[in-house]
Design a protein that fits this description.
Layout: H1 11-23, H2 28-42
Amino acid sequence: MVAVRIEFDDDEQYERLKELKKHHGLTWKGLLLEGEKRVLEQKPE
């Protein structure tokens, strides 16, 4: 298993993402994977 360390710019950014994760019932890994899906969906072919 690979571990990833994320550094946030400030507490506000951390809290915003933490609330988003909680609202959708995701883990940090789940939030990253959902973000990946959205980026790939918007990527021009």
